[in-house]
From TrEMBL:
The lineage of its organism: Bacteria, Bacillati, Actinomycetota, Actinomycetes, Kitasatosporales. GO terms for molecular function: hydrolase activity. Keywords: Hydrolase, Signal. This is Serine hydrolase domain-containing protein. The keyword Signal applies. Its EC number is 3.-.-.-. It holds the Pfam family Beta-lactamase. Gene3D superfamilies: DD-peptidase/beta-lactamase superfamily. Residues 40-344 form the Beta-lactamase-related domain.
Amino acid sequence: MLTLRKSLVAMVTAAALATTASTFTANASAAPHAATRAALEAQVKAGHPGALIQVRDGNGVWNASAGVADLDTGRKRLPEDHIRIGSITKSFTSVVVLQLEAEGRLSLDDTVEKLLPGVVRGNGYDGRAITLRQLLNHTSGVFNYSDDENFEHMAREGWPEHRNDAKTPSELVATGLSNKPDFAPGKGWNYSNTNYVLAGMIIEKVTGRTYASEVERRVIKPLGLRETTLPGTSVKMPEPHGRAYSKLLLHETNPDAKIWDTTEITNTWVWAAGEIISTTGDVNRYFGALLGGKLLPAKQQKELLTTVPTPDKRYAYGLGLYRMDLPCGGYVWTHGGGVHGSTSEATSSPDGRHTMMFNANGDWATLEATEVVKAEYCGTTA
């Protein structure tokens, strides 16, 4: 989540740097990725306990890590480690919706009222004026429930006691709709997890199956993503995995804030907006297939990559993907994912032949994850 990732950033201290001294491991083909290696180490120097990356391009597969997977044991991060990928999940949700459109079971121009009668009404909302397309490209104006000041899973007071409280999609939507709209439908842009929870509910309404089963049937199994799961109410991580560490939003301006182990935590609070657990290898395989045109017919692929402007001129948003302009020219398709203790960035060249998946097991470093993207695709570091 781009907005979540930004909001999780906090100042790093000398003590944290001492605790997470950088150690680096890579395979023998590291030379072509020297700038990326430096950017990976910089993420650890900036505060993350550890960082992990896999790149797939014409030279093959390159895996590298810096820092540690576990602050207690000092274990290094492994390419096989499972990670919470956060809002990278949104592109999976969009793929399922677009496949349903290709099958004639819905249209991106259908209104939310048609697809979910009575769900988006009141407090300034009218589902008759909001389309499915507007949900997927964040132009609906629907308030982001995770920005609600009383939403306990965003680490306000009492978060430790609520970390594993299961949330239903209806509860998440209700939290979003209890706030006034950000703007009239189609009259602005604002990143909103509520949009993708509604999209997940639409998938279930149209298919009569669970959101998780549709993602598994349509994306995970066809691509052979054996390490990718949707955890539902489980708080456990598949093995192997490192630890995840967070300072929590409550302490975002406090450099001496307590570091929490957030490895085991419910993902129900993000559901279709960010629940997936995967590996760097599986995400790269998925992004390569997605941008390579292997998951959608040509018409729906064009819709996936049709963008709207965002307030940050470097980015435009499609349907679950950002188009990011590179400082060296050209662009890539990317999406970040930030949940407590896990910061990710998945990226691909426009043709799907050069993919990169980055993850850090912390959320308070002073460098954006996109600095790793610039290093990999431009060969320079900040």
